[in-house]
Amino acid sequence: MTTLTVRRGPEFSRILGLGVARGERVVPNEELIGPIDSSDEWIRKMTGIATRVRANPETGVIDLAEGAARQAIDNAGIDAQEIDAVLLSTITYPHITPGGAPVLADRLGLTSAAFDISAACAGYCYGIGQADAMVRAGTARNVLVVGAEKMSDWVDPTDRSISYLLGDGAGAVVVGASDTPGIGPTVWGSDGSGAPLIRQTASWTELRDNRDLPFPTLFQEGPSVFKWASFKMGPVALEAVEAAGVTPADIKAFIPHQANVRIIDQMVKQIGLPDTVVVAKDIADSGNTSAASIPLATERLYRDGLVTSGDLALQIGFGAGLVYAAQVVVLP
Fold first, then answer.
1. Catalytic residue list contains 125
2. Which of 29, 121, 142, 260 is catalytic?
3. Residues 60 and 194 reside in one and the same domain
4. Residue 257 annotated among the catalytic residues of the structure
């Protein structure tokens, strides 16, 4: 019997470099409250958001992704040609096919493996889980993981459920080999029974068959999503901590998806994080940027001098699907 040859990679992987790109415009609450008959005070109280960043009309999601990717590769200290795979987590690339990842790879001068991940706000953590496995399996030396969204292209300004939350941006990391563990086990899953809770208002085929329908935008059942995220995601994050063989006291930073400050605060209580843990709340200035929110929030912690290379961070993404993923990582 012929035996197949298989590849074997390094025992461990880690994040080697981080890069980000944010929308060019700062959009305060006051700019959005008219169409939804709300107030700056109400938005701050219910979400913690004071402003969000949004891209100019001519800036596309791949433009944001490219900016973050180039910065991540530079910060990883490698040449772009050492990237063997490009993973793009996004729900706002405006084409059913081809995916955005091959387009991004081409912009970077690459002909590597490239594919999109559609896991909404959990997409970045899904990408980290995939990249970790690919490096350790020997499938790729270095993997570029990008979470990029231009959410402002898909909002109805009169929608009170989600439109005022959303911002634009991209965050990218390079995952490569490590002599010591740098990415803990990924704890992930889904609950498809909750798929209608965060959704596109109409499918493309529904729009095709009924041109009287308005252009599809994003919508959420806010109270149900809040309840799910606030009380179901804390245990998932704690499971990721335990799977990594550490305790909450070992964590330097908690970097959850930036969905809502009240959700973040509830998760902190459920996990039992001590006061010494830095909690990312980039949402106050950047809004909810879906798959980009965790790397953007990570960069903010660096910029504010709250974390440094080698610190342990607990990160968790959760959103439409419903899907979720969490892991403990060593910061680059």
1. no
2. 121
3. no
4. yes
- Residues, the chain, total? 332
Residue at token pair 């419903």? 322
| Known active-site residue 142 | no
CATH assignment at residue 326: 3.40.47.10
Catalytic residue among 29, 142, 260, 288: 288
CA dist 286 and 51 (Å) reads 6
pLDDT for res 1? 86
State the total domains in the chain. 2
40-65 confidence digits (pLDDT tens): 999 999 999 999 999 999 999 999 99
Residue 302 corresponds to which tokens in the numbers above? 């660096």
DSSP collapsed to 3 states, 118-170: CCHHHHHHHHHHHHHHHHHHCCCCCEEEEEEEEHHHHCCCCCCCCHHHECEEE
Q: How far apart are CA 17 and CA 90, in angstroms?
A: 20
Contact present, 112 and 141 (Cβ < 8 Å): no
Residues 171 and 251 in one domain: no
DSSP 57: T
Confidence (pTM): 0.95
Catalytic pick among 29, 142, 257, 260: 257
Do 193 and 146 lie in a common domain?
Answer: no
Domain span at residue 77 reads 12-178
156, 177 Cβ separation under 8 angstroms? no
Report yes or no on 6 lying in a domain: no
